[in-house]
Amino acid sequence: MNLPEGVVPAVRRMKDFEDALKTSSEYIIFLETRLSQLKSLVRHAKRNDKKVLVHFDLVQGLKSDEYGMEYVIHTVKPDGIISTRGNIISLAKKHHVLAIQRIFLLDSSALTTNLKILKRSQPDCIEVLPGVAPGVIEMIQQETDLPIIAGGLIREKKDIQAALDTGAIAVSTSEHHLWEV
């Protein structure tokens, strides 16, 4: 499966969904959705030639377990799963969908802990937040040899360029004005 590249729209509000579909990005990310609307949103996105990544942890009404994963994979049919939880990443890989581990870089201790988690979960890709830490992005890429998506606190074009220049393959952002950079 192709990995996301460039700027990937992260849809937080449903009013931004149609605009995300109009972007040149191959992928879109669903954040903070409700389980009851997820299947129709994914179907609509795919009809518009978009690949869909679902942030599993942020789907309201969905339990983060194997049964929840089976439901999402077999009924909703996303192209990939994003999660902070290693067990969800393992389940996504078991079901042969793109598995993206989201990590938060709060301090050096969190970085060390996250590197250990990444070695156990073996995701296909890592989403690093905040994405405005280019030096750390470069170091994580070298340490893990995994593709990195930069996300969180991306507010300006220069943030996107800095992340891409230091090795991120893509930048996810819910900042609507940055979707077509």
Automatic annotation (TrEMBL):
Look up keyword Transcription and say if it applies.
yes
Q: Which GO terms label this protein's molecular function in UniProt?
A: RNA binding; transcription antitermination factor activity, RNA binding
Keyword tags = Glycerol metabolism, RNA-binding, Transcription, Transcription regulation
The keyword Plastid belongs to this UniProt entry's keyword annotation: no
Q: Which Pfam families match?
A: G3P_antiterm
Record-linked Gene3D superfamilies: Aldolase class I
What are the recorded Gene Ontology BP terms? glycerol metabolic process; positive regulation of DNA-templated transcription
* InterPro entries associated with the record: Aldolase_TIM, GlpP
Q: Which PANTHER family match?
A: GLYCEROL UPTAKE OPERON ANTITERMINATOR REGULATORY PROTEIN (PTHR35787:SF1)
Summary of the function given for this chain in its UniProt record: Regulates expression of the glpD operon. In the presence of glycerol 3-phosphate (G3P) causes antitermination of transcription of glpD at the inverted repeat of the leader region to enhance its transcription. Binds and stabilizes glpD leader mRNA.
Tell me what this protein is called: Glycerol uptake operon antiterminator regulatory protein
Species the sequence originates in: Cerasibacillus terrae
